[in-house]
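Q: Here's a chain of 494 amino acids. Please give me its 3D structure as tokens.
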Amino acid sequence: MKKFIKRFNNLIKNIIFKLENKTNNKFQISTFNKFIITFICLLFFYLFYLSIPILYSKSWVQSNIESQLLKKFKINFSTSSNISYYILPSPHFLLKDVRIFKNDDEKKFSFADIKNLKVFIGQNNFFDKKKMTVKNIKIDNANFSLSKSDFKSLNNIKNNKFSNKQIEIKDSNIFFKNEIGETIVIIKIINAFSIFDTLNSLNSFNLRGEVFNVPFNFDFNKKFDTSQNEEIYITIKTLKLNVFNASENKKNIHRGGKNIISTLNSTIDTNYKIDDGIIILNSSNSKISNSKINYSGEASITPFNLNLNINLGDYKAFKISDLNFFLTNLIKTELFFNENISINISIITTPIMKPKIFHKSKINFNIINGKININKTKLINEEIGSLELKNSNFIFENNKLILNTDIMVDINNSDKLFSLFQTRKKYRKQIKNVFINLDYDLLDNQFEFNNIKIDNKKINDELLRVIEGFNDNNINNWNKNKRLFNSLFKIYEG
């Protein structure tokens, strides 16, 4: 190749020198112009050289590419004869309507449909087509279908070295399906890359995508050394959420690992073990706003199911408004309005220094069949009584997040209640329970009372007008709450 270029260069020089002689020195060509002419000629020759693969037989290209992709990437591509060749941005073949097949119990079926597959080739020697080599591939506009049975295959893939040729995926989708073929989760791939890093001896996979309209970044690394460690990093900026997971993989069996979740100035540090598909969780130095917490639970992946018990202990900073902020941002993502997700989280607080109103609390967060509730959430004042939520339901529509719920207030000592609110003695009436049904707009902090009963008796219109003063109330404004409470019992006849 170098000899050919040298001969071509000498030919150009001879032509130029002959031209100079014929002009009998009347027409002079400068050294710079010689360089430009030579450069242009070489450029045209280079472009001609890059265009040689267009002369290859399409059937040969198709067969050769399929063979190399199977050998180098261990992927069974089925290509069509719809093949084009392009020089820019780098020499590559564009294959349309490609499929990826897999074998299962002697049956061959497609699990990926690819609209565009770009196969980039090396430029070493286009004169000998047998020396054509695949450098890397780019998958564009593809749909991947995966089911529970495919997770074992995916696990085998990640436990073996990836190809040292890069695979890039853009503008594609992953459809996770259940046993009967119904799509349960769709992951949108904005772009993704996979490669075996020979320098650091690790598999590397990076994905930027969306799930349930929530953008996220996913990075996976697996070491091929004595540790066999795997690391996963997940970043969800909209939730200000970062997840790190490190696990050991000995003989292809996960025995345990560590998971760290950082969000809202808090760190959830978890040790876990996996036993027969069940993940057993335990806290390790977890903190919320510098207050230590403890928790334990179990989880399974397919379908996703989580049972978690959290004890915040003497978490002095805990407020209902803190939980409100977290739940609001979480539910707004619509991540949990999914019939294939089941979650049961219980949060208990038992502060040493008793707050003014509620001394203890148990917050329940439940997701069942795509519906979210906080049923059996209970706030307790040891001297007065308790408040419990029942028949609750979250609705997110028209950019409004509404909680509809029944509230049962059981009063064991009404005298202590009136003392807490500093109610004048002449307005104090004995009460045992209060029933409230309301809609609470978590985004605008607005209440709408639908039904109120005191000791099983419906309140009159005058009392209702007073209670409507709570509609735009800040629940953390103690003085205003106290005034409204006393106004209510000033009118209440008992």
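Q: Can you summarize the key feature?
A: The radius of gyration is 35 Å.
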